[in-house]
Each structure stands twice: as C-alpha cells, then as structure tokens.
Amino acid sequence: MTAAPPAAIGGMTPISEDNPPAVELRDVTKAYPGPVVALDQVSLQVRRGQAVAVVGASGSGKSTLLNLMGTLDAPTTGEVLIDGHRTEHLADRQLAGLRSHYLGFVFQHFHLSDRLTALDNVASGLLYCGVARRQRRALALAALDMVGIGRRAGNLPYQLSGGERQRVAIARAVVHRPLLLLADEPTGALDSATGRAVLDLLLELHRIGTTLVVITHDPNIAARLPARVQVADGHIRRVEGLWP
Amino acid sequence: MMGWRNRHGDDRRPQARGTGPLRDPSGLPEPGRLSPLDVIQLATLGIRSRRLRAALSTLGVAIGMATLVLVVAIPRSSDAALLARLSALGSNLLEAEAQPQNGLAVSFPSDAAAMAARIAPVTAAAELGNTRVVVRRSRLVAPATTVGLDVLASSTDLLHVVSGSMATGQFLSPATERFPVAVLGHQAAASLGIDRPATVDKPERVLIGSRWFTVIGIAAPMPVTSDLDWAVLVGWNAARVDLGFNGRATVAYVRADPGELGPVSAVLGPTLYPPAPGLVNVTQPSDALAAQRASQATSSGLLIGLAAVSLLVGGIGIANTMFVAVSERKQEIGLRRALGATRRQIRLQFLGEAITLSALGGLAGTTIGALAATGYALWEGWPPTVPAAVIGTGVLGATVVGALAGLQPATRAARLPLERSRRALTAQAACFCSCPCASSHVALTSWGVR
Asked: What is the domain partition of chain A in residue ranges?
C-alpha cells in the first residue's frame, strides 16, 4: 500500500523515556450526582510510546479514567492535558478536533456499522479528520493490511468473526495514526484465544511506537503490558513500569 | 503499592503539575469538514439500516403529497377540458333578451338581428321571437296544459351563430322556414317523447297552437345556450302565418370580436331597443360555465387544505421517527463523537436524514399523485395536466417539512451529553464470538516508525 498517511499528530513514536507526555492528568477529581466520587485527586501521565494497562475491579474508576483521557468526560476538578494542550476550557469544536486527530478508541463491543463493509468502517475513522474521500479508502485498506485482515476488506461485519471485528475496530482507531490509542476492555467480548490474539496485535502496534492505554479488569492481560496502573475506589493504588 | 522510579532514580511519584510543556490552544487541529457527498451518505445510512421503518414514516408525507398533486392536477385537467369545450363553442357569444316591463312583454323592433349585425365588431347575429303559443303532443291534451316548453320563431342562421349542431334531422332553412315544420331542442324532444324526426313510415308531429307541425330535426345539447334545449323552434314566416306571431324578436344572439365584447355589450341595448335600452339584458352565456369553474376552484381550495393537514401529519410522523432514532442510536452518536464529530456535524447528519426521508416521501407521493391524476384524466376523457410547478413545489415542500420535522430531533442528538452517549457505547450487550482469530501479524511496510 503506497497511500500517504494523513498528517498524523502522533502515532508511531520512538520508544524513549524522554518523550513528552501524550496525556496527563493533574489532580483530577470526577464526581457524579449522588454524590459518587469516581476518581479522587488523581495525577498520572503517559508519555509518548508507552503502553499502560489500567487495571481494577468493576466500579474502581478505571473507565472514568479512560473517558477523561479521551475527553469523553470532563473532570469535576483538575486538569487533563492531551499532548500538552489543556482541555478544560476548550470549545466542543476544539475538543472534537483534538479527538479526531490525537486519539483513537477501541471499545469492548466493536461498534461497527452493520451496513458498511470492513473497509468503509475503517475509513469512517478518517471521516472527521478532513482526509479526502478517495484517500480515506486507500488508508483504510493499509490499516486493514496492518492488522492482518486486508483480505476481508469487502466483508460486512456479520460475515466476520468476533476477533476480526475487533481488528476492524482497531484498524479504525489507528487509521489516522493517533497520538494515543485508548482501548476499553478490548478483549472483553472475545474468547480467551481470540482475546490473546487481539492483545498481541495491540502490543505489536505498541512495539512500532503507538502510545497505548488498555483498560482491563483481567490481571493476566495487564501483566502482558510493560506498565500497569492499578485503580481502586477512585484512587491510583499502584503504578508499575510507568516512565516518570 | 509498588514504588515509583523516576528518571532520577528516586522512588517519589513525579509532581504532576507542570511536568509537560503547555501548548498554545490556537495550535489545536481543526475538525475536518464533511463533503456534501459525506453528508448525503451519512443521511442515508440510518434509512438504509431501517428500510421498513423509513418507508412507513415517509408514508404520511407521501399520502399528503399525492393528495396535493391530485387536487391540483384533476381540476386543472377538468379546466383544460372545459376550456377546450368553450373554445370550440366560442366564448364570444352575447345574448340580448328583452325584459318584460310592468308585466307586459317587450319585443325588439323588426330587423333587430340585421341592426345588430351592423355593429362593426359583430360577425354574425341571429334572432328568436317568443310566439307564446303552447305546444302539445296531441289534441287530447288540454290546450292550457304547458310542459315548460317555449315555441320560438327562429331565424335560419341561429344554429350557426350559437355553434350548435343537430343530433338528428335538419335545422330550419330558407326553404323550409315558411312551412309548418319544427326543430326540437334536446330536452324538448325528450319531454315530448320524440327521439327522431318524421319519416314516411312514422310522421312525427307536434300540435302548436291549433296547427300540426312536422318535426324535421332534433338539436344536439347546447351547453352554452342551454335555454334552447327546452325550445321548439319554428320558421319565422311559418310562425307569422300559422301562429299569429307579431314578427318581433325577443332574444338576439350575436358573435363579436373577442376583444370587443365589452363595447358591443354596451351598444347592443341601444341598438336593439332604442326606446328603452335598459330593458335589454345582455349576457355572455359562457359566464355560467366560468362560474362553474370558480365553484370547482373553491372546493379544490378545501382539498388543498386537507392535503396540507395530511402533510403536517406526515411531518409529525417523521419527527417521531427521528426522535426514536436519536434514542436508539446513542451508541452511534457516542462513537461518532469519539471519532471526532462536532455537535454541528451530528446535527447535520440527523437533519439530513429527516430531510431525505421527507423528500423521498414527497417524491413517491408526487409520482403516485401524478400517475393517478393522469389515469383519472384519461378515464374521464380530459387532457392529462400535471403542472411542473406542482411537482417542484411538492418536493420542495416535503423538503421543508422534513427540515422542520428534523430540526428538534437533530438538535437533541447534537446536544446529547457526551457522557450519556459514551455510556451507551459501553452498555451494549456483549456480542460473544468463539471463533479463533487470525494471527496478530502486523504489516509494517507502509507504517514507518516515527
């Protein structure tokens, strides 16, 4: 595939402890009406090129952490910085631009459009990046090749296995070469063998430089990532392998 | 808790504040613009996913639009047929009738038709005189019994002037007008029970006054001068000789230049009856048909109102469908927001979907309405008339209805808190798949490490 990638913000970064932070949380608290404090005074930074597992039991606040990192939620107090940009005062349009260029999301349930082929599902990852229509499909095909299912580009989601569907979702998340790939229980809807293969793929993406944050409740999955952040009761209880 | 090891080798957690360089917010990337083709594709994605629902929700608009086209097109076809009939009969015919004065009959002087024919724009003139004699079927009918039929002395060119025609037999001619022969109007013939003129085998006759008149013809219906349908016409001279007619006309028909009908109307009274022109009532017989058209226009106005109500109901149906769609598609909205869609782009997608739904309904309704109107017109023998403006206005109207119907649901979709749509992304029931997955090979060829 010879198509030029979009003007990527981040994506494939050399692995180095001196890399600038891709995402940074400063004294972040997130409270919901109730009041329920999902996160309490959490500070954390993930540098470019790192791969981190955020692990914790259900209700520990790990998903809230991912949503804050992905600007899908705003903190009640504290600051979230994406590539050094403070996000708390950004307008919807600026946040949307930040998500479309800097971030990639992988969800547990894939969320592919039933009416679109694998290729068009992946191309939809570039829809809001300002990439020309023809180039979108070329880049989508390259991304599908990269995740190993280029041959299934013309298939509809129902014609794909669960693992293949998650690969399509991963291709959609990385097609624009995001600064940060956020995966929320990416193996949660898959059997253990398929889950392992999907995790292998994510680690392969990390090996070539993708900054990766994986949310998981499974300590075995967390153990396979180079760094781990354990969350419990809205606090970071343990940090392991994370670059300072 | 495992100790934190920073680049300096100590185990303190780094001070979060200020560890990363702050960037200028103006350097943030702009969200991409959607091309018109992208918007169309997004607008039709939801419709293609739920085709039956889409079809049902467009039904209201389609019915409204079909009704609208029908109620506009059918009267237009009817009008076209009427106009064709009017132009064939001629709308430049004037009728001048003497009005009774103090209960006494007034009649024009002799040679009234000749006088009228001398008015410059008048191209032809004919006259009728009421003989005030009763027509009967036989002597067994009492002389005082009338059946509402007038016996009129007619000039021989009457049929030509009123553009009439004969259903059967012949009209009065210079050769026959002095003999006791009669021509029956269409309704008069039916009233008297006569369906054909006299033959050698069956000599049809009517008793006019005390004299038998042989029926030589029956006129075809005359829609413009329908009074003549109820008349028994006899020759001018025969009336004078056999019926004691005074030879003075009571009605005159004139054909005039269509552009000069007003001036001719104005001078017709003074010309025909100089002593009291005000007693001459001049009318244009085609006005009655025009009044009929006007009453049809009023009723089609009501029907257009009904069609508008139907369109409104269709719009409400689309709004309802769109509200349901927004509720059902929170996951999709959340996903698109995660992919970088702005609120405006979400609004555009749902608004586009509502407009597309309504426009499709409008297009279907217009097509059905046009086909039905054409079929009905052909069945009635009218010229099929479906005005292009109605089709254009219909589709445009449906688009406007769609835009109005979709505005609120689209705004709701755009304003859906990101948190709620994000929850929808994580709340879906799992789709479990036990298939073994392909290898995790990553092709690095085009993905250079940065």
From this structure: 21-240
Question: What is the residue whose two structure tokens read 């009123």?
Answer: B162
* Three-class SS state of B316: helix
Judge whether A21 and A48 are in contact, CB under 8 Å: yes
The mean pLDDT value of chain A amounts to 86
What is the Cα–Cα distance from B232 to B293, expressed in whole angstroms? 30
Alpha helices in B153-214 (DSSP H): 158-161, 186-192
User: Residue B14 and residue A239: Cα distance in Å, rounded?
Assistant: 12
Contacts of residue B346 in chain A, CB cutoff 8 Å?
none
Is A94 in contact with B25 (Cβ distance < 8 A)?
A: yes
User: How do the domains of chain B map onto residue ranges?
Assistant: 34-84+291-423, 91-285
pTM (two decimals):
0.67
Answer yes or no: are the C-beta atoms of B71 and B300 closer than 8 Å: yes
Distance from CA of B317 to the nearest CA of A (A): 24
Angstrom distances, CA of residue B324 to CA of A39, B53, B320: 34, 11, 6
Do B395 and B362 touch, CB atoms closer than 8 A? Answer: yes
Strand partners, A236: A231
- For A115-118, the CB contacts below 8 A with 24+ separation are A115/A156, A115/B45, A115/B48, A115/B49, A116/A156, A116/A157, A116/B45, A117/A153, A117/A154, A117/A155, A117/A156, A118/A144, A118/A149, A118/A152, A118/A153, A118/A154, A118/A155, A118/A156, A118/A157, A118/A160, A118/A164, A118/A168, A118/A171
Contact B162, B183 (CB under 8 A): no
Residues from chain B contacting residue A137 (CB–CB below 8 Å): none
Contact: A92, B33; criterion CB under 8 Å:
no
Q: What secondary structure does DSSP assign to A157-170, as a single string? A: GGGS-HHHHHHHHH
Give domain A21-240's CATH architecture: 3-Layer(aba) Sandwich (3.40)
Interchain CB distance below 8 Å, A84 and B20: yes
Q: Which residues sit opposite A44 in a β-bridge?
A: A25
A195 CB-side CA count, 13 A? 22
* pLDDT tens per residue across all 450 residues of chain B: 232 233 333 333 233 333 344 454 557 788 888 888 999 989 998 888 888 888 888 888 898 888 888 888 888 888 778 777 776 666 788 888 888 877 777 788 877 888 888 888 888 899 999 888 989 888 888 777 777 888 999 999 898 888 888 999 999 999 998 999 999 999 999 988 888 888 877 888 999 988 999 999 999 988 778 888 999 999 999 999 988 888 888 999 998 887 787 888 888 888 888 888 888 888 887 776 666 666 666 666 777 787 788 888 888 988 988 998 888 888 889 889 999 999 999 999 999 999 999 999 999 999 999 999 999 989 988 888 888 888 888 888 888 989 999 999 999 999 887 666 666 666 543 333 333 333 333 333 233 222
The whole-angstrom separation of Cα A179 and Cα A177 is 7
Residue type, B132: R
3 state DSSP class of B403: helix
**In chain B, which residue's Cα lies nearest the Cα of A202?**
B440
Contact (Cβ atoms closer than 8 angstroms) between residue A54 and residue A215: yes
Strand, coil or helix: B401? helix
CB contact under 8 A, A24 and B343: no
Mark B274-284 as b/e (b = at least 16 C-beta within 10 Å): eeeeeebebeb
Pairwise CA distance, residues A182 & B79, whole Å = 70
Tell me the two tokens of residue A14: 């050399």
Chain A partners of B30 at a C-beta cutoff of 8 Å?
A: 97, 130
Residue type, B271: T
The pLDDT of residue B298? 60
